[in-house]
UniProtKB/TrEMBL annotation:
<dbReference type="Pfam" id="PF13456">
    <property type="entry name" value="RVT_3"/>
</dbReference>
<feature type="domain" description="RNase H type-1">
    <location>
        <begin position="4"/>
        <end position="125"/>
    </location>
</feature>
<dbReference type="InterPro" id="IPR012337">
    <property type="entry name" value="RNaseH-like_sf"/>
</dbReference>
<dbReference type="InterPro" id="IPR036397">
    <property type="entry name" value="RNaseH_sf"/>
</dbReference>
<dbReference type="InterPro" id="IPR053151">
    <property type="entry name" value="RNase_H-like"/>
</dbReference>
<dbReference type="InterPro" id="IPR002156">
    <property type="entry name" value="RNaseH_domain"/>
</dbReference>
<dbReference type="GO" id="GO:0004523">
    <property type="term" value="F:RNA-DNA hybrid ribonuclease activity"/>
</dbReference>
<protein>
    <recommendedName>
        <fullName>RNase H type-1 domain-containing protein</fullName>
    </recommendedName>
</protein>
<dbReference type="InterPro" id="IPR044730">
    <property type="entry name" value="RNase_H-like_dom_plant"/>
</dbReference>
<dbReference type="GO" id="GO:0003676">
    <property type="term" value="F:nucleic acid binding"/>
</dbReference>
């Protein structure tokens, strides 16, 4: 399984969003969510929150093997750095690094936005609707076009 995450930020909007989608090797959605964050936080911190949420979803849903993908290179690089700096996100980094040690988690990697479209749409869903949503075993209708574009091409 692959878990894609993304953060949605609209400056001055008062609402931030996190998108998360769990997909199997065939590209089918097993779980998806759009989560509202009602406090202003920095975009990097929100991206790290999205990554943390993705790992938590994988563990809580008892997925046997999963990896996390994010389109925020800065967040991925911070997580993979071993030296502890004086960052305002050190607590989040510690939580993420601890959860990455779970046997079921195969790690975290950077992907380009074009390969992370579903999570991006789910994060932005919150900015438009100002509400959280969850889909279990069904594709989110708000991301149907992106899901079809992400599906593996038949031979």
């Amino acid at each position: 399984m692959k878990i894609n995450v993304d953060a949605g930020v609209k400056c001055g909007g008062g609402v931030l969003g996190i998108g998360c989608v769990v997909r199997d090797s065939g590209g089918h959605s097993q779980f998806a969510s759009s989560t509202v964050i009602t406090r202003e936080i920095a975009p990097l911190q929100l991206e790290l929150q999205a990554i943390l949420l993705g790992i938590q979803v994988g563990i809580q849903r008892k997925i046997q093997r999963f990896s996390i993908e994010s389109d925020c290179l800065q967040a991925i690089q911070l997580i993979q750095k071993k030296d502890e700096g004086c960052h305002d996100v050190d607590c989040l980094l510690g939580q993420i690094r601890t959860l990455l040690l779970y046997d079921s988690c195969d790690g975290i990697s950077f992907i380009f936005r074009e390969a992370n479209r579903v999570a991006h749409v789910l994060a932005n869903y919150v900015l438009t609707n100002k509400a959280s949503a969850m889909w279990i075993g069904a594709d989110p209708s708000c991301a149907s076009q992106e899901i079809s574009l992400d599906m593996p091409n038949p031979f």
